[in-house]
Design brief:
CATH superfamily: P-loop containing nucleotide triphosphate hydrolases
Number of helices: 13
CATH class: Alpha Beta
Oligomer: single chain
Radius of gyration: 19 Å
Shape: globular
CATH architecture: 3-Layer(aba) Sandwich
CATH topology: Rossmann fold
Helix content: 40-55%
Order of helices and strands: HEHEHHHEEHEHEHEHEHHHH
Largest sheet: 8 strands, mixed
Structural class: alpha/beta
Number of strands: 8
């Protein structure tokens, strides 16, 4: 039995225990929200999102990706699928949640934000109430929702990151990428509604070569953040520079599917197990408020409620 099988069995036992408890107390089910972001584009954020989702699905989690980057369709390209509907169809065109969830590899779900993300600030209170009620259904059918934000330090990106209790911040060894990652943390820290006590930020250093040291890059970023921002991001790990990534993009397949034995695939699987271990660790409680709560928070910060 390999490590993934062992962890899957632990999760299954935990799920069975939670089912017994739910029958006794019937708590409202909510999904775990993980927001993936970066200070700049071109760091491999969407590739990490897609492959991490599949790795989590293989462990036994029900995973849905919400593509919150309305400007690009990176997730669609990497999955090799084109959704028939997106979030805007749910908001304005009477589609149900099941209509806008596209099934991808390994049974992961995918929701395209489309123009819906851009239109969030224009919703009426009635439309907000309708959207939140629909998103509550998503909390019931997903264990983990991964939000792939747009790249850079835009208002929309910051709102999603601020509203999330778990954030994966992707950077690369390039000095500009590290600087932009710090700039995002700095801007985030200045937001009045951001709470470092209620947010776990984990750093991923992508595209590490034999001449780089991912942990040293993290330590430098963490040291500066702790000194000037009083923030202490955690280190999830690094991903190696791997030619399999570009080959998979050309095939329009996730790396973990096209090249399951690649270094990238092994490392991303390890990330998934680390995240599940964090959830199981009682000393590291995961605040699972769900996607409906996140959008309620977004609207409140926009002054819509």
């Amino acid at each position: 039995m390999d490590q993934a099988d062992k962890l899957r069995r632990i999760i299954e036992r935990q799920y069975a225990s939670e089912q017994v408890n739910s029958q006794q107390s019937s708590p409202k089910q909510t999904a775990r929200i993980i927001t993936v972001t970066s200070g700049k584009g071109g760091v491999g954020k969407s590739s990490i999102t897609v492959n991490l989702a599949i790795a989590l699905s293989r462990i036994g989690k029900r995973v849905v990706i919400l593509d919150a980057d309305f400007g690009l369709a990176n997730v669609e390209v990497m999955l090799g699928i084109r959704p028939l509907y997106n979030l805007a169809d749910l908001m304005f065109r009477g589609k149900n949640l099941s209509d806008i969830i596209t099934r991808g590899p390994e049974n992961i779900g995918f929701i395209s934000g489309g123009s819906g993300i851009q239109e969030l600030t224009n919703l009426t209170k009635e439309q907000i109430a309708y959207l939140v009620s629909k998103l509550e259904e998503l909390d019931k059918i997903a264990d983990i929702i991964i939000i792939d934000t747009g790249a850079g330090i835009t208002d929309t990106v910051l709102e999603f990151v601020t509203a999330s209790s778990e954030v994966l911040l992707v950077t690369t060894p390039e000095p500009t990428s590290i600087t932009d990652a710090y700039a995002l943390l700095k801007t985030l820290n200045r937001k009045a509604n951001f709470s470092s006590d209620n947010t776990t930020i984990r750093i991923i250093v992508n595209r590490i070569t034999k001449d780089d040291n991912g942990e040293e890059i993290y330590k430098k970023l963490s040291l500066v953040s702790a000194k000037f921002l009083k923030l202490k991001p955690e280190y999830l790990g690094y991903l190696p520079m791997d030619v399999s990534v570009s080959k998979a993009v050309m095939k329009q397949l996730p790396v973990i599917c096209a090249f399951p034995d690649s270094d990238f695939s092994r490392y991303i699987t390890n990330f998934a197990m680390k995240l599940c271990n964090a959830e199981l660790n009682e000393s590291k409680r995961i605040d699972k408020k769900g996607i409906a709560h996140l959008f309620n928070y977004l609207f409140k910060s926009m002054g819509k409620k």
